[in-house]
Every structure is written in structure tokens, then in C-alpha cells.
Amino acid sequence: MIKNESIYVTAVSGFFPARSLDKLYNFADCAGLHLIFGLNALHRNPDNSWNASSALSLLKYSAGKKYNISWELGNEPNSYRTMAARSVNSSRLAQDYSLLKTLMQSVRFYSRANLYGPNIGRPRKNAILLLDGFMKNSGSVVDAVTWQHYYIDRRVTKVEDFMKTRLLDTLSEQITKVLKIVQTHAPEKHVWLGGVGPAWAGGTNNLSDTFAAGFLWLNTLGIAAAHGIDVVLRHSFFDYGYNHLVDQHFNPLPDYWLSLLFKRLVGPRVLAVHVAGLQRKPRPGRVIRDKLRIYAHCTSFHNHDYVRGSITIYIINLHRSRKKIKLAGTLRNKTVHQYLLQPFGTDGLHSMSVQLNGEPLHMVDNETFPELKPRTLRAGRTIAMPPVSIGFYVIKNINAYACRR
Predict the structure, then answer these.
(1) Which domain holds residue 296?
(2) What's a Pfam family in this record (predicted)?
(3) What stretch of H or E contains 109?
């Protein structure tokens, strides 16, 4: 799940003006974010080794400004041949990262700064081989292992494709592949989703910036948390393609409201979920692809509206019909706060606006968020999930032992 917020940048050219870095850092600092700067790995010497001269200059400049920055090198190195007609193998990539670590240690201010990588793309054959070789040769250099996941091709134009259970399940399969490699070579290392979005290459207009994309986004947060991925970096926040969280006028898009609710209600501790009727075991090689996806966490400790011991359940209903959920056991007779998200307006799943418990969400003004009011469900009431909707449900005063610690 999202453990803390970071802003992530890749320098796509060899020249990044100092004034641009100043603006970027000041923005991150004012917003209470931590900046992770992705250095250009394609600045190469004739022997294909990494030319680190501009990186060293940037490190020294940033140190002089006392900018608290973490670092990463490159973006999807498994795709360099396709994107830039260059090829970097795992040995070379490991040497590049070792060199960057040495440079960081030579600049006293960054001698203990964090380094992340190698930020491979989707873990298919070439990416897997690159990650395996990198971890074998230089896995100890990075503080967390990063990789990226995008669910779908940007050429997809049907909203139904954003709701296929087979598509949603690809993330779990790929996390398993990455964790296997990391645990083989460096089992103590954290694994991060260093870039994730509904669609690659900037996303798809009128799809990856709409309510429909929220199913993929919340699925990402739920599955990542269940696998122990403690940091998820969303691509992107603003002004690149159609995966962004705010529009050109900085108005929140559906995934922004979803992220805001998640951060306010969902804590880092993951709880097991047992759904009666879904306990059957699949045959070997077969996965049960559920259209009703239910996750449970301890409620965020940072939310002062709820005492420790509360539980947050979040649900994705991909069915075209309403689904009823009855809480059982000790949850049955507890008051529940409902935060139900549905598309707002006549565009349905293509809507770029959302409603919370039937009320449209809009900024009050340029600086003021609306109050995110829950709807109280009396104890014992059945939860009714409307078709193709998303809901957060906080079980108050349950005093769950796992959530009191």
C-alpha cells in the first residue's frame, strides 16, 4: 500500500536546469513530499559505461542547497533497445548503480541518502533476466528494489477491458515473480512498485482518467498491500498523458478522490478476509477470478475520527448488479461508516467526476477540500454495493486486538 508520499522524476535529457530543480524541490517541500530524482542512465561513454559527470554536478549542486533527495538511475532499462537503440545488460547496470552509490558517498551530504532501483518494466522474460542479474551482482547497493506495472495497452478503447478480472489478476502474478528473485538474492530488501498506472505510454484518453480506472487503482493498492509491497508510487500526478490524478486546472479526478479516502481510512496493517461461499479451492493451474473483491485493514492511526482497534474494509464490485454483504461474527453488531464512491453525471463509468454517498465531490475553492462525510449504517444492517461501484466501510469501536498495537 502507499506507506508515504513521494514525488518521483526522471530526467529524460542530459540537461536539467538548476532553476527547474529548485522549483521542483520547493514544490515537494511545500507539499510535505519527499523527492526521488531519477537520473538519466542513457548518458553513455563510447564503451557504453555510464557517463556520470552531469549526475555528479547535480549531486554537488543539490548538496550545496541541502536538498533532502533520494536517487534512482534510469527508467525501464529492459526497454532501452526499443526506446533509444541502446542496450544495457545486467552486469553493466549493476556497475552503473555501484558507481552512483560511490558518487553519493563522495558527496558528504548524500553519503547516507537512499538509492532505489533498477525500476524495470513489467516483469516479462527480458526484464526478469535483467532484474535477476542485477540483484545477483549489485542488489546490496539499493535500499529498495523498484519495478513498474501498467495493466493495459494505451490503444484499448473499451471501458469493459478495464474491468476484466483476468487483467486485474496480472498484478498478483507479476509481484510473485519479482518477490521470488529479490528473496533469492537479497531477502531483507523491501520491494516497491516504482511506477504504476492504468495504461502504459501515458494512458488512454477518456478511460484512464475516468471513474473506470479506479477499479484498477484500488485493486493495485489492495493486492500490493497483501503481498507486503509497502510503497506504491502512482504515475502520474499532473500533465503527462491520461493517467494523472488532477486535470489541467488542478481539479481532482476520480483516482485522486479514491487515493484521498484510502490515505485517510486505510492503515498499513493488512487483515485476512474470509468470504462465505468463496472458500472453495481452485483446481491446480486455475484461478478463481472474482468480480467482488474485498480487502480489510486496520483503520489508519492518523485518522482521529476513529479510535485504535477500528477496521476498514474496502470493496470493488465489478458486477452489473447490486451485491449484498453481511458482516459476520464480532463485526455483525457494530455500527459501520460507509464511504460509497460512484460516478457522477450522465457519462457513467466514463465520468471524470465522482459522488460520495450520493453527493458530488468538488473543491470548495482553490484551497479547500469538501468534508468527506460518511453515511452511518446501523448495527446489523446488510451492506448493499450498487453495480460497478467502490466502497470503504469503517467498523467502529470493534476494538480488534491486531489493530490496537
Answers:
(1) 271-404
(2) Glyco_hydro_79n
(3) none
